User: What shape does this take?
Amino acid sequence: MELPEFKYHPNPIATGNIKESSETCECCGKATGYVYNSSVYAEDEIEFVCPWCIANGEAAKKFDAMFSDDDPLIEVGVPENIVEEVTKKTPGYNSWQQEEWQAHCNDACEFHGDAPKEELEKLSGDELSEFLDSQMIKPDVWENILAHYQLGGNPAVYKFLCRHCRKVIYTMDFT
Assistant: This one.
């Protein structure tokens, strides 16, 4: 069975936010072979939701749930229909504190998971300065973080990609 397409989270299996499972979806009652593997913001605790119930919005509707925080997208003026698609019809992602979905070109960005260390080591010039400024990190602190950086580690560096101009945006999260 082919997974639904998520334009704002193009490969949720690679990012670890959808995983293979024999569990039954609490929304549709089916064991689809896959379940969501991240936070569900809802009044009731939801343990297993399939990707199809996320994609078609049924899980958000049934449980009055969101899969990521809408505030970061609302604050930067992303159109309401996009905020709804990202928060109610797209798998969220695991973060140490609170995930902050990125936006660029008046649209939400694609989430691509933890940034590879090799990619971060290549950051330089304006791109590096912009990232460090946005995260309020001094260059010497960044060098120390980078020396010990690991995928899935603490701190985490997440990679987002603008769907329009293809600009890469990195964010950091710590415990």
